[in-house]
Amino acid sequence: MSLMKESVAVTQTPRALVTGITGQDGSYLAELLLSKGYEVHGLVRRASTFGTERIDHMYLDPHLDSARMFLHFGDLSDGNSLSRMVQEVQPTEVYNLGAQSHVGVSFKNPIYTVDVDALGTLRLLEACRQMATPPRFYQASSSEMFGQVREVPQSERTPFHPRSPYGAAKVYSYWQVVNYREAYGMHCSNGILFNHESPRRGETFVTRKITRAATRIKLGLQEKLYLGNLDAQRDWGFAGDYVEAMWLMLQQDTGDDYVVATGEMYSVREFAERTFALLDLDWERYTGIDERYMRPAEVEELLGDATKAEERLGWKPRTSFDELVEMMVASDMELAKRERALVDAGLATVEWQAGTHRE
Ligand code: NDP
Ligand code: GDR
C-alpha cells in the first residue's frame, strides 16, 4: 500500500490534517470528518509493524478517484517532516492528537514524552504559522493538566497543577496554543478533554485493561487481572461523542478553550465492579493489586464542568457511563470469543498472563 499522496490540488473541499490518526480519537475523528465531506490527511509514524488497524476500514487505494483519506509518514519529533507535510497538504484545519498519551509511561520516558507532547505541538504550530493562510488548529489538551485537585468540578478557570511529565508537557502545549492565538491571531483552540474510552481504547489504559481481562477471564483465557490504584476517580465519557466537540470548536468564529466532560465521576474499583457484574463474575475473586501499576504521583480525582461547551458549542455527551461499560464489554466479548475459537481449533495458544504485565 502506498502511503504517500504526491501532491494535492487546492480545492474548496475542507481539508483536515490529523496527527494521531491511528489512535483511538484519530480513528473516530477521521470517520466524523469523512462523513462531513472532508478530505482527511493523517500523519503516520514509521514502526516495525504497521499499526493502522483502527483506520484500515476507511482506507482506499489513493489512486482511486473515490479516495478521500491519505496517509503521510512523519513524526512529531521531526519538525522538517511536519513543515513538509503541512506545505504539501495545505490543510484548512489541523487536529493535533498525536502524543505519547500514557501517563504511567511518561514517568519512565519523560524526555521522549516532553519532546513529542510539548515540543511536537510547537513544531506543528510553527509549521502552520508559516502557511500563507494558517489553518484552524485544535490541540488535544487534557484534564491531566489539573492534576492535584484545586477545586471540584474543574472548569476552564481552574488553575493547572500537573502531576506527571505527561501533564506538564500538555500544560506547555496548552499555553503555546493560547500564545499563537494571541500573538499571531491564529484560530487555535484547546479541548481540555477528560478521560474518554471506547472499544478502540488502547489496552493498557485502565478501562480497556479491565474489560479485556474480564471477558478473557469469562472464557477461560486468563486467570487474573492486576491493577494499581483502585481509588482513583475519573470522569469517563465515550470517545465517539468527544470528537464531535473537537470539530465544533474549529467551526466557531474564533478559537477558544473548552472543557469536555460528562460531569460524573466513578472510581477504578467501580468500573471493575460494573464490568465483572455484567459477566456474572465476582470482581474481587479475579483482581489483584500490583505495585508496579502505582504511579510516583497520582491524580486522585477528576470531574469536569462542561457548561461552556454546552452553552457555546451546543455539545453534550450522549453516552452514559453504564452504556459505555456495556459497549466495551460487548466488543471485548466478541474479541475473546474469536480468541477462544482459535484456541479450541488448535490455531493459537492461551497466554494466561496476557495483559497483566502491562502498564
Ligand atoms: P492514543 O494513544 O490512542 O493515540 C495516540 C496517537 O499519537 C497514535 O496515533 C500514535 O501513533 C500517535 N503518536 C504517538 N507518538 C507520536 C509521534 N512521536 N509522532 C506522531 N504521532 C505519534 O491516544 P488517544 O487517541 O486516546 O488520545 C488522542 C490525544 O488526546 C492524545 O494527544 C492524548 O494525549 C489526548 N487526550 C486523550 C484523552 C483520552 O482520554 N483518550 C483525554 C485528554 C487528552 P501510533 O499509532 O503509531 O502509536
Ligand atoms: P489516565 O488513564 O492516567 O487518567 O490518562 P489510565 O486509564 O491510564 O488511568 C486512570 C486511573 O486508573 C489508575 N489505574 C491504572 N491505570 C492503568 N493504566 N493501569 C492499571 O493497571 C491501573 N490501575 C489503576 C491510574 O493510576 C489512574 O489513576 C488518560 C490518558 O488517555 C491521557 O492521555 C489523558 O490525557 C487522560 O486520560 C485524561
The second-level CATH architecture of the domain at 15-200 and 237-264 and 301-318 is: 3-Layer(aba) Sandwich
Got a strand count?
13
Task: Report the major sheet.
Answer: 7 strands, parallel
Report the uncertain regions: 1-11
**Chain-averaged pLDDT:** 94
Spatial gap, N to C terminus: 32 Å
Cofactors, ions, other ligands: NADPH dihydro-nicotinamide-adenine-dinucleotide phosphate, guanosine-5'-diphosphate-rhamnose
Total of DSSP H or I helical runs spanning 4+ residues: 11
How would you characterize this protein structure?
It catalyses: GDP-alpha-D-mannose = GDP-4-dehydro-alpha-D-rhamnose + H2O. Belongs to the NAD(P)-dependent epimerase/dehydratase family. GDP-mannose 4,6-dehydratase subfamily. Its EC number is 4.2.1.47. This is GDP-mannose 4,6-dehydratase. Residues 17-328 form the NAD(P)-binding domain. The chain has helices at 24-35, 79-89, 103-108, 110-129, 165-184, 206-218, 239-250, 268-278, 283-286, 307-313, 321-344, and strands at residues 15-19, 39-44, 69-73, 93-96, 136-142, 188-193, 196-197, 225-227, 233-234, 237-238, 257-260, 266-267, 287-289. The radius of gyration is 20 Å and the shape is globular. The strands form 4 sheets. The protein has a 7-stranded parallel sheet, with helices on both faces. A two-stranded parallel sheet has the order 7-10. A two-stranded parallel sheet has the order 8-13. It has 359 residues and is of the alpha/beta class. The protein starts with 14 loop residues before the first strand and ends in a 15-residue tail after the last helix. It has a domain at 15-200 and 237-264 and 301-318: 3-Layer(aba) Sandwich (Rossmann fold). Bound molecules: NADPH dihydro-nicotinamide-adenine-dinucleotide phosphate and guanosine-5'-diphosphate-rhamnose. NADPH dihydro-nicotinamide-adenine-dinucleotide phosphate binds at residues 19-20, 22-26, 43, 45, 47, 51, 75-77, 97-101, 116, 140, 142, 193, 195-196, 202.
